[in-house]
Amino acid sequence: MIQTMESLRTAVSGLGPRTLAVAAAQDKEVLLAVDGARVRGLATAILVGDEPQIRQIAQENNISLDAHQIVHEPDKIQACRTAVNLVRTGKADVVMKGIVDTSLILKAVLDKEIGLRDSPVLSHVAVFQANGFDRLLYVTDAAMNIAPDVNAKKEILRNAVKVAHALGNPNPIAVCLCAVEKINPKMQATLDAAALVEANQSGEITGCRVLGPLALDNAISPEAAKHKGITDPLAGLGDILLVPAIETGNVLYKSLVYMAGAQNAGVIVGAKAPVVLTSRADSDEAKLNSIALALMIASGTSNK
Amino acid sequence: MIQTMESLRTAVSGLGPRTLAVAAAQDKEVLLAVDGARVRGLATAILVGDEPQIRQIAQENNISLDAHQIVHEPDKIQACRTAVNLVRTGKADVVMKGIVDTSLILKAVLDKEIGLRDSPVLSHVAVFQANGFDRLLYVTDAAMNIAPDVNAKKEILRNAVKVAHALGNPNPIAVCLCAVEKINPKMQATLDAAALVEANQSGEITGCRVLGPLALDNAISPEAAKHKGITDPLAGLGDILLVPAIETGNVLYKSLVYMAGAQNAGVIVGAKAPVVLTSRADSDEAKLNSIALALMIASGTSNK
């Protein structure tokens, strides 16, 4: 089981040659991230975008393009479609967003003809290596689904379970995070948690153990759970943290990175191949981690 | 301006004799917290509750009751009413919850005849001293208001501003936390944030500067805000973090305590005097901090 970002990157560099399909690659930050991935032995890239701009940016920043291919496509919508198609046809392993709106990438991913549709819901999974934890934590969905209903949450959970499986965790403990431990009809998150636990027990959601409602302390700290009198032996051992809405996930994400000093990675899953959306706010390490995460997931998917 | 928990406790111990009115004090954890407050010179207590039980628990745990008064009242509802009345009549400074449901304490606090009604909304304010921050952070509402509408948020914000004022921060920066920085009609939190900023600019909410919508990174990290291209010079300097709903606040609270190692305090405000609700999950330090916080607020209120 992969339990650190370092072992994730090591595992990916051992997978053999991997290829990123970068949509609209004419961006310094993106080219630096791709260069980092090459240097670390994670992957090379097919850079889809405005070739003269790509070459100029690379030259200005001393970025070698020798290991990569370039496909000249100045139109951003077309660049997204081309990058997605490269993955669909097996020429690349994952799609990576360049300097283009996320909505355009996702539109291409969801395109019925050339796209990569798979699960009914695309969702974001953030993975954290936090201080004091001997395992990775998977937070979903902190970035994409705003206020998912219980059916969307089932898909979000399934998507996250696949990510944990791809990282070698065969039966992750998924906690439906709430503000309390008791079902309260005034708190929809607690009702959804109960429904998700039931869906797990009935076999509708498989490959994981679902707990909830639990507050964060009792999701990640066995001591806190014991102190609170929670008898479930899995309480405090959460791997996947399913948040009720985007604000909760986003605050947890940012708090882990900016206040708890956690290392992070993020990816969009639910399509036949993952999509890497590094942002300018990500550290260089986080960008590499996200690329590695996506490649690992793609590897796991293709092995099935 | 008080910027650490230690300076908060020092300030309170310099206020002169203070008194806690403890409702249903027959509880080991509560008596230990009260004893800690006495030892640190924060306050003594009027212990309202079952006197034989209080004395037995104290004896079994070597807790001296010499500095405190005891008011025998075995009935929990009456104990709450008595404790609230002690504050209303100036015999105690703050109400502290003993072994009684929070709802019973709050019912007594809100009682039209003997209570302490003041603001239209009672709310919880959690105060954090987090690593790497030169100031205290005020998170509200992580524990009481489930999904406040914009009008309730105005009151919650006003309540928190009073807490910051009581701790010597004359013009706190209050950030309406969201998942994004742009107003998005699909995200109610962003609409509420815009309305709260406007209420601040129009003079409806005073004594603070309100910013938002901002995600947590841009609320508390000037570097993140700069990197994101946010031009407001106050971005990243947030003191008060107003969360959109209880789950977001609760996750932030727990993440700060259990993952970022922050020191914390918490209090219910909005009544004429604050209410201390320490929980078993609180560390001994957190309980003392909460008592100190409540006493400081009570002092600030009484000075006005």
Short characterization:
2 copies of one chain form a homodimer. Chain A has 11 helices and 11 strands.
Q: Can you describe this structure?
A:
The structure is a homodimer of 304-residue chains. In chain A, strand 1 (19-23), helix 2 (28-39) and strand 2 form a beta-alpha-beta unit. The first copy, chain A, has helices spanning 5-13, 28-39, 51-60, 76-88, 102-110, 150-166, 188-201, 216-220, 222-227, 246-258, 284-303, and strands spanning 19-23, 44-49, 69-72, 94-97, 123-129, 137-140, 173-177, 209-214, 240-242, 263-269, 275-276. Chain A starts with a helix and ends with a helix. Chain A contains eleven helices and eleven strands. Helix content of chain A is 42%, strand content 17%. Chain A is elongated and about 65 Å long. Chain A has a six-stranded mixed beta sheet with strand order 8-7-9-6-5-10, with helices on both faces. A five-stranded parallel beta sheet of chain A has the order 3-2-1-4-11, with helices on both faces. With 304 residues, chain A is an alpha/beta fold. The model of chain A has no long low-confidence stretch (mean pLDDT 95). Chains A and B meet through helix 8 and helix 10 of A and helix 8 and helix 10 of B.
Structural descriptors:
11 helices; alpha/beta; homodimer; six-stranded mixed β-sheet; 304 residues
**C-alpha geometry of chain A:** elongated
Low-confidence stretches of chain A: none
Gyration radius of chain A, in Å: 19 Å
What pair of chains forms the biggest interface? Answer: A-B, 42 and 42 residues
